[in-house]
Fold this sequence. Notes:
The structure is a homodimer.
Chain A (H helix, E strand, L loop, with lengths): L1 E5 L7 E5 L5 E4 L7 H6 L1 H16 L7 E2 L15 E4 L3 H10 L14 E4 L11 E3 L6 E2 L2 E7 L8 H5 L2 E8 L2 E2 L3 H6 L12 E2 L3 E2 L8 E2 L2 E2 L2 E6 L2 E7 L8 H8 L10 E3 L15 H12 L12 E6 L11 E7 L23
Parallel strand pairs in A: 5-18, 7-20
Antiparallel strand pairs in A: 1-2, 1-13, 2-3, 3-4, 5-6, 8-11, 9-10, 9-18, 10-12, 14-15, 16-17, 16-19, 19-20
Helix pairs in contact in A: 3-7
Amino acid sequence: xxxxxxxxxxxxxxxxxxxxxxxxxxxxxGIATRLQxxxxxxxxxxxxxxxxxxxxxxGKARHAFAFEPAQxxxxxxxxxxxxxxxxxxxxxxxxxxxxxxxxxESFYTDPLMYQGASDDFLGPRDDAPFASADWGIDFESxxxxxxxxxxxxxxxxxxxxxxxxxxxxxxWSLRNLIPAELAKGFGFxxxxxxxxxxxxxxxxxxxxxxWRGGRVHLSVESRWNGQRVGLxxxxxxxxxxxxxxxxxxxxxxxxxxxxxxxxxxxxxKDLSHGYSCxxxxxxxxxxxxGAPATPxxxxxxxxxxxxxxxxxxxxxxxxxxxxxxxxxAAQRGAxxxxxxxxxxxxxx
Amino acid sequence: xxxxxxxxxxxxxxxxxxxxxxxxxxxxxGIATRLQxxxxxxxxxxxxxxxxxxxxxxGKARHAFAFEPAQxxxxxxxxxxxxxxxxxxxxxxxxxxxxxxxxxESFYTDPLMYQGASDDFLGPRDDAPFASADWGIDFESxxxxxxxxxxxxxxxxxxxxxxxxxxxxxxWSLRNLIPAELAKGFGFxxxxxxxxxxxxxxxxxxxxxxWRGGRVHLSVESRWNGQRVGLxxxxxxxxxxxxxxxxxxxxxxxxxxxxxxxxxxxxxKDLSHGYSCxxxxxxxxxxxxGAPATPxxxxxxxxxxxxxxxxxxxxxxxxxxxxxxxxxAAQRGAxxxxxxxxxxxxxx
Lengths: 348, 348
């Protein structure tokens, strides 16, 4: 099934069920009002929502309404955990090679992950606000999963079974703040501002055989100012699958239901796939010519991220965000990139 | 006012108001059932709870019952954010000196903080479970605050006004996992398992003039296996006050109501105050004799943390936890340290 959260003025929004083709939606209020509620009591509530979902898909839901991604918050507008990985080792290799550093051998067997902030996520169409473009504003197109309760010490293959939902994420990064922050030794804090999520969270069965081995075998498209800059395969080159990422977090403690675990920037060795974050493009430029040439994002820049299923339909709907610097309102439609905002398929 | 959360089988427990002397308590259910609910709607709900608190303190609450810390969860059993600082620079200096490293000049002006996990906290009397004593089990006695909504870019002095509640924390640390994890560059994940919190969260006015300048000017007592190992002053040597810590997190993003911000291990230059974590004791031994002599915690070890107000009464109640290794149940009362569990004042 597919689920989303509508803006209603409250902190957690209103849970809705969304039809497979993202055309219609239906309030879930008779069953659950918030997505976290479903995750807290999955076995009891999920079958009831699945029934509603099937009724909606069959065109028989009596109070269906048009689904509008612009009215969505992140599926979980706030969560109890956001642990993000860097599971595509190609990304790590590129970034390290650009600064002349080796990739430690352990990085191929031990996932690189960080604890992110989860108290305030951005919706799929929310502006991304920053005080300064000097911070080095970058998108990161990612896949994320939402877990059920995970026991401490759960094995990677068992952890796959605790994946309740799949989501699309834009893990905003402030590249120019990262070197000094990581040099302090305690990880990201200021350099990873609020993450955005795609409009719809889906159960793994929604992508059929594309969900296998704890990986999403579909491509993630990233359009920066209307230009397709990446169409990266999320499956085969994911060095650590989601079960491994979850198990890594669960090595020394439990994970509570509703924990979000991310894949990190989707990245492929074959350069024809493009990139899912500007840092990677700049790393390539650094390797090729000794200096980065592509600037980071500026006021009014747009980013659109989407994943199509094997049937060609949008799985999660699209993330479509515009960068806003300082107090200035982003001028929707005024920037070159905004033209492309209406160009993609599905999700609206 | 003083607030706590009773175990009731649910994930968020049941909000109660606790009398100033921690003797009696009263359900807050007519006003709010969960602590997060209060934080989400502070201005409307806090005055109603304050009224109930005053009625309880005057002995006129009709359905008061005996307060029992052993029945408490953490005041926020799960939260949307836990960002922990290392605000006592003496602790950083000691640990660095022990390994022959300098403290960078920036550490005196730029707070060292990390994003912690907030999905699953331990209650004040819950066993602390670990798979292996080889992980280097250590307590960390800390003060923490719970914030209201904090706007992005809030100044340090303004951020002090967003402190809603004060808490006592035991930030469990796995010292032997830290070096390898921090060497990866992305901060703590496995080496910081579930944090425990004291039974009662209090509004800053509860400690009167001891809350000033964004710091708690009281002493934190740590008893390890019944021995007092630390009585550290939390106020004067806190290099960065809580407003500075909150503002540091809020530099690039908002903080949502209910965010928890920690002080890090309370630490004093004057060695007669003892220590608030074993790592500091071992650092001193390293500096003095070239090798640490004090082992980390073992199965059955106990830790008791408490803060007395200027009136001599327990402010938060005591954290009293026992280390449990593997599947073995901790033998309460069987270890040497357990004798001391009944020795402290207040909080029960």
